[in-house]
Amino acid sequence: MSQLISIPESYESLNLTHINIAHHPPQSPTATPIVILRLNRPDKNNAFTPQMGESLEQAYRLFHLDARVKVIVLTGAGRMFCAGSDLDIGFDDRVERAGDFRDTGGRVALAMHRCSKPTIAALQGSAVGVGMTMTLPAAIRICHEKSKYGFVFTRRGLTIESCASFFLPRLIGMSKAMALITTGGVYPGLSKYFGELFTEVLAEGTAVLPRALEIAREMAENVSPLASYMSRALMWQGPTSPEGAHLLESKVFHHMAGQSDYKEGVNSFLEKRKANFLCDPYEMSPGDYPWWSEVDIRVGPKASKSKL
């Protein structure tokens, strides 16, 4: 049975632990096409906690279903984006079997990845550990030139998480990903080790969020959410051969050409006006979406230890 989720009239009314959500433009009483999702522990440099992870998961579930939201901008409160996991609190890993553990950062990364709305990560300050890996499923990452960024897990006796072994090599190549992970080093945003991980690297940290919002506004006003959602899925979950890609793309393209967003996109271009895309990506995806076999990450049921 499907679980019913209540979509709030205003995201600013939600009381979520260690994060907050703001509408953009500000002072809107209801949800806006752009929402700002902030890690909100500035006194702890936004160090990640299990409660923060649960809040982020909840927020992304809501954004996925809410047709009013088109773009999510993820940033941090204060001078740092995220100082990695709060090591004083730990990882909420008290389970009997390793097979039952699901790393919290990975659950956040999957929630972002599966969300029908794209994320722009605005790293206004330094980020390490899960502060970096949680941003890998984002569509765009913007950072500050002089802040420091790194995947420091091996320097803490840990392995990478947040699905980084999947995302990072695909984003920057195996060679650069291997260098970042095996050194565990921390580098400025312009370091050659990051390759093209960051879409933009800005001279001033205070300029990162405004620039992210500028891009978000351009996307919200000009891009079909359904077309964006399907295009991202084709790239992340596409076949491994050009022939397979051709067959799948043709099928999805045929579906898209029959949607009202295609007609609106053409008409708005010919009439030299802003498009008004109305296709909800959650409701209007192709009938065979997802076209891949999804892996079930749920922890299986356990037998009762009580005697019959």
Descriptive notes:
With 308 residues, the protein is an alpha/beta fold. It has helices at 50-65, 104-114, 130-133, 164-172, 174-183, 208-222, 225-236, 242-257, 260-270; strands spanning 19-24, 34-39, 71-76, 119-123, 127-128, 140-144, 148-150, 186-188, 200-202. The protein has 2 domains: 11-220, 2-enoyl-CoA Hydratase, Chain A, domain 1 (Alpha-Beta Complex), CATH 3.90.226.10; 224-308, no CATH class. α1 packs parallel to α2 and α7 runs antiparallel to α8 (242-257). The protein has 9 helices and 9 strands. The radius of gyration is 20 Å and the shape is globular.
Q: How do the strands and helices of this protein lay out in sequence?
A:
Layout: E1 19-24, E2 34-39, H1 50-65, E3 71-76, H2 104-114, E4 119-123, E5 127-128, H3 130-133, E6 140-144, E7 148-150, H4 164-172, H5 174-183, E8 186-188, E9 200-202, H6 208-222, H7 225-236, H8 242-257, H9 260-270
Parallel strand pairs: 2-3, 3-4, 4-6, 5-7, 6-9
Antiparallel strand pairs: 1-2, 7-8
Helix pairs in contact: 1-2, 4-5, 7-8
